[in-house]
Design a protein that fits this description.
The complex is a heterodimer of chains A (about 270) and B (about 375).
Chain A lengths: L2 H5 L18 E12 L2 E12 L3 E5 L6 H7 L10 E9 L2 E2 L7 H7 E4 L10 H11 L8 H11 L3 H4 L12 H14 L4 E5 L7 H14 L4 E5 L3 H7 L2 E6 L2 E7 H6 L4 H7 L5
Parallel strand pairs in A: 3-8, 3-9, 6-7, 7-8
Antiparallel strand pairs in A: 1-2, 1-4, 4-5, 9-10
Chain B lengths: L1 H22 L3 H17 L2 H36 L2 H4 L3 E2 L8 E3 L2 E3 L4 E2 L2 H32 L2 H16 L2 H27 L19 H25 L3 H9 L4 H30 L2 H6 L18 H13 L5 H31 L11
Antiparallel strand pairs in B: 1-4, 2-3
The chains are: A alpha/beta (about 270), B mainly alpha (about 375).
The structure holds adenosine-5'-triphosphate and magnesium ion.
Chain lengths: ~270, ~375
């Protein structure tokens, strides 16, 4: 056992079973994706596949472009001033930048949870239903059942069942984040993008969300940005290491941490960088 | 450990000083004490506090004074007119050729009747038209400015709003009387009047369309004057909506309109209500522009929305000169009563605005320029 491994708080039994990533179909793939803002190039020639029904962790020092990559996977960068891109992103083999692609439909399939919880200014139940109503996913008589199902899926129902009609801002930060997760799941996405979803949460909420993510695969494909290497080891089947806007290395999580093939990866995962 | 040490060290010097002061009372010590007291007094800022306190009283005294003077002047009229002031439509200062009559101590011209119902309804009606038109337009414009326009264009538009807010109302009035009113009378009013269904409830929107001086024209001119107030406040409020929930809504696949409707507008809602009430206060008190386009129709309610009417403010400004020629002074008292009613209506609108805005928290609103 390597020193880094020994220092992680969880036992090996909790780690994901080794999945053979090579045999799985790819849900999402970036093809030579280069993008930036104005004269700045932020990502340089990224080729990365996200196998269906797996968790991929994006790690790397701050400013290495993880968030920027994540946001381009559901075209959240489109509105950023002076944003440009080359290359492509394929969702089930189809370019998400193709002229016929409807942005709203794309984002329904590729959902996102942010670093800080961001509930909408409406009741807890309406938060869960916001996307359901907008996309007309279910008729009105099913709404109540959807709220209950999604909240219990993320483990929040017991805490809020008596105040579904009240403001989400009375919830704790962790509960708000779970609500945002329930909201994202309620529209039935194929891919879920998470940008440091637990960075503002305590260890117990963090553990809860991590086990939830494990429970959501293989139905869902998950991409998670994290600064917490132990978290990447706990939840990710595949881990991709970014450094200065380049994808240095992507490999099954255990291999990336134990036998990194690039010296920068080795330095980063052993805590000597960043 | 360091904390435990620091406390006695801080206490010691002052303890010594008190002990010295008590043990050795002398001229030297007394002089120093007086100087210290004077300095402490100066440092306590009594001068500044007194001055600012007095300044803070000015608006209170001014408001109370104005209301008191109005009430004092209006009192005989309030007694004479009674509740009829709010229910009657006839407005007649009485005959100045006959002999003045004395009723319950108040001297007035024979046949004087003051029913302010058309004035009150005209004030409320024209302001209601202004708000119904101006608020959706303002909110829509603010949404476009904040969410759609590139920053430089948004700034240019903001400049226009500020310029519009600063134009004197007499200019709006002249524009309304010369150009906008006739335009409505020629094109808009006949078109609407012809297409409104023939239902008894909608009779107020049908019939003769007049010459452009009337309730609809006044309401729309007021709307143009209210838009800058509501739009610029709403724009500031929308700019303060945090980006994170908006991004969350976008990431959920909601359209731009849904993001505005579900996130931005609820976030700014109470502030927008407050701004609308400030706009309402402005419309209620607006005098010159309304007087110029109202048609100054006293003594009855207009039979439809296109016809001449009047408001409290417009009546006061147009009748004051002739009121001063009333030898009994009673006409002026009736106008003072009308002014008092207007002041109370405006006051209620303003207080409601403040309360709502305070509940919303956040941005300070531009001060209403009403009355
Ligand atoms: N809108 C933007 N305009 C210009 N530069 C940007 C913009 N957004 C991000 N960048 C730049 O892109 C680079 C990558 O940013 P990004 O947020 O993707 O990093 P990150 O890996 O997520 O970092 P962190 O771990 O700190 O969140 C940074 O140098 C940042 O300055
Ligand atoms: Mg980031």
């Amino acid at each position: 056992m390597s020193p880094a491994l020994a220092s992680t708080p969880t036992t090996p039994a909790q780690w994901p079973e080794a999945v053979d990533l090579t045999t799985r179909p790819v849900a999402l793939r970036t093809c030579d994706l280069t993008l930036g803002f104005g004269s700045r190039t932020v990502l340089q020639g990224v080729n990365l596949g996200f196998p269906k029904g797996t968790v991929t962790a994006l790690i790397g020092p701050t400013g290495s472009g993880k968030t920027t990559l994540l946001r381009s996977l559901n075209r959240m960068n489109d509105k950023v001033p002076k944003h440009w891109h080359q290359g492509d992103v394929l969702l089930d083999g189809q370019s998400i930048f193709a002229p016929g692609v409807q942005l709203m439909a794309l984002r329904r399939r590729v959902g996102m949870v942010f670093q800080r919880p961001n509930p909408f200014p409406m009741s807890i139940a309406d938060n869960v239903l916001a996307g359901v109503k907008a996309h007309r996913i279910a008729s009105r008589q099913h709404h109540k059942a959807i709220v209950k199902a999604r909240l219990s899926e993320v483990g929040l129902l017991d805490a809020v069942s008596d105040r579904l009609g009240s403001s989400p801002f009375t919830l704790s930060g962790g509960q708000q984040q779970l609500l945002c997760l329930a909201r994202a799941l309620a529209v039935g996405p194929d891919v879920l993008l998470l940008d440091e979803p637990t960075s503002s949460l305590d260890p117990i909420s963090t553990e809860h969300i991590e086990s939830l993510l494990r429970a959501l695969v293989p139905a869902l494909t998950i991409v998670i940005v994290t600064h917490n290497l132990a978290q990447a080891r706990r939840v990710a089947d595949q881990t991709a290491f970014f450094y200065q806007g380049r994808l240095v290395e992507a490999a099954p999580t255990a291999r990336l941490f134990e036998e990194p093939s690039e010296p920068e990866t080795a330095r980063y995962v052993s805590g000597r960088m960043g | 450990m360091p904390k435990a040490q620091r406390i006695p060290m801080a206490r010691q010097p002052s303890a010594v000083a008190t002990a010295k002061g008590q043990v050795q009372p002398g001229p030297k010590w007394a002089g120093r004490a007086v100087a210290t007291a004077a300095r402490n007094l100066a440092r306590s800022g009594w001068l500044l506090r007194g001055a600012t306190g007095a300044a803070a009283l000015v608006p209170v005294v001014a408001l109370a004074g104005i209301l008191a003077v109005l009430a004092e002047r209006a009192w005989p009229a309030i007694v004479y007119n009674g509740l009829g002031f709010f229910t009657h439509v006839a407005w007649d200062p009485g005959s100045s050729y006959g002999n003045p009559v004395r009723t319950g101590g108040a001297l007035h011209q024979a046949g004087a009747t003051f029913g302010a119902l058309p004035l009150i309804l005209g004030t409320l009606g024209s302001s209601a038209i202004a708000i119904v038109v101006a608020v959706p337009v303002s909110v829509g414009a603010a949404l476009v400015v904040v969410e759609k326009l590139p920053p430089r264009m948004a700034n240019v538009l903001g400049l226009f709003l500020e310029v519009l807010a600063g134009i004197p109302s007499v200019v709006f009035g002249l524009w309304g009387a010369l150009s906008f009113g006739p335009l409505i009378a020629r094109d808009l009013a006949p078109l609407v009047a012809r297409h409104v269904p023939d239902l008894p409830v909608l009779n107020f929107f049908r019939g003769s369309t007049g010459n452009g001086e009337g309730l609809l024209t006044a309401g729309l001119v007021l709307a143009v004057m209210v838009v800058p107030i509501v739009a610029s406040t709403t724009r500031d409020l929308l700019r303060q909506v945090p980006a994170l929930p908006k991004e969350g809504a976008r990431a959920l696949g909601l359209s731009d309109w849904e993001v505005s409707r579900l996130v931005s507008l609820p976030w700014a809602r109470s502030g927008i209500i407050g701004a609308s009430l400030l706009g309402l206060a402005r419309a209620l008190g607006e005098t010159m522009a309304v007087a110029m386009v109202s048609g100054a129709f006293l003594g009855a309610n207009p039979s439809n929305i296109y016809l001449p009417f009047t408001t409290i403010a417009a009546t006061i400004v147009s009748q004051l000169d002739s009121a001063f020629t009333d030898g009994t002074g009673f006409y002026v008292r009736a106008l003072a009563e009308a002014a008092l009613v207007l002041a109370v209506i405006t006051l209620v609108a303003n207080v409601a605005a403040r309360l709502l805005v305070r509940k919303a928290g956040g941005v300070a609103l531009p001060v209403g320029r009403g009355i």
